[in-house]
């Protein structure tokens, strides 16, 4: 039933986000700023200064909260939202929205293809996929998807941070042009390793939760 699929998807997605959120913070900081020497340095600096908690209700607020290195600008998600509305207006809430759409629309279309291909490849004909198969297929799906998503994810993060003291960009094309000119093509793959490291466990757990919940919620005989 669609309701059970929605419920299973919502719960499994929440579990996946909870698992991957700490590394997501590090990813945003590496992509949007140049003050970190690498993954280990960014992790050490982030947690030594700010601890483990980060709150992120929506993507823009999430990126702003994750990207700030001064702990006094935003006191939390509600305060961050209020500051954005006060300083940038309603339009400010949609900063980076085009880059977000360009990242998510094609990648959501791609997302389930590697999952299904991997799952079928690891499952014997006539058998149900086991836990290892679902975990592996989900992890592969996440890594493949984020490999395609990372370039636009970098641009999205930079556009969203531009209203919070970051470099100012007039749009997606301008951001790409300036970023590539100043840092080379490799800038578009900034955070790719970290995206892959976080994508595998997040999506492995997400798909396992979904498949497990559907077995519980699906009516007998379906």
Q: Keyphrases for this structure?
A:
mainly alpha; MCP_transmembrane; Mitochondrial carrier fold; globular; single chain; 8 helices
Largest sheet: none
Helical percentage? over 70%
CATH structural fold name: Mitochondrial carrier fold
Q: Overall pLDDT, averaged?
A: 76
CATH architecture: Alpha/alpha barrel
CATH level-4 homologous superfamily: Mitochondrial carrier domain
SSE order, as H and E?
HHHHHHHH
Unreliable stretches covering 5 or more consecutive residues:
34-53
Number of domains: 1
By DSSP, the count of extended strands is 0
Which overall shape is indicated by the principal axes computed on the Cα atoms?
A: globular
What would CATH call the class?
Mainly Alpha
Q: With helices defined by DSSP (H or I, 4 residues minimum), what is the helix count? A: 8
Q: Which structural category do the helix and sheet elements fall into?
A: mainly alpha
Percentage of β-strand residues: under 5%
Write a structural description.
It is a multi-pass membrane protein. One of its GO terms (cellular component) is mitochondrial membrane. It comes from Nothobranchius furzeri. Belongs to the mitochondrial carrier (TC 2.A.29) family. By secondary structure, this protein is mainly α. It is 73% helix and 0% strand. It contains 8 helices and no strands. It is globular, with a radius of gyration of 19 Å.
């Amino acid at each position: 039933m669609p309701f059970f699929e929605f419920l299973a998807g919502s719960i499994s997605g929440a579990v996946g986000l909870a698992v991957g959120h700490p590394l997501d913070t590090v990813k945003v900081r590496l992509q949007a700023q140049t003050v970190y020497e690498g993954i280990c340095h960014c992790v050490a600096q982030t947690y030594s200064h700010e601890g483990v908690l980060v709150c992120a209700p929506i993507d823009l607020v999430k990126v702003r909260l994750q990207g700030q290195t001064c702990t006094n600008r935003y006191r939390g998600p509600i305060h961050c939202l209020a500051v954005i509305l006060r300083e940038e207006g309603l339009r400010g809430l949609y900063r980076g929205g085009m880059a977000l759409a360009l990242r998510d629309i094609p990648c959501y279309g791609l997302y389930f293809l590697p999952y299904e291909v991997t799952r079928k490849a690891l499952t014997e004909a006539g058998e149900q996929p086991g836990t290892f198969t679902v975990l592996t297929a989900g992890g592969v799906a996440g890594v493949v998807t984020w490999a395609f998503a990372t370039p636009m994810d970098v641009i999205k993060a930079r556009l969203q941070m531009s209203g919070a003291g970051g470099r100012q960009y007039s749009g997606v094309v301008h951001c790409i042009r300036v970023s590539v000119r100043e840092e080379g093509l490799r800038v578009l793959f900034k955070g790719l390793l970290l995206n892959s490291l976080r994508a595998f466990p997040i999506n492995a757990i997400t798909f396992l939760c979904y498949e497990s919940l559907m077995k519980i919620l699906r009516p007998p005989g379906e």
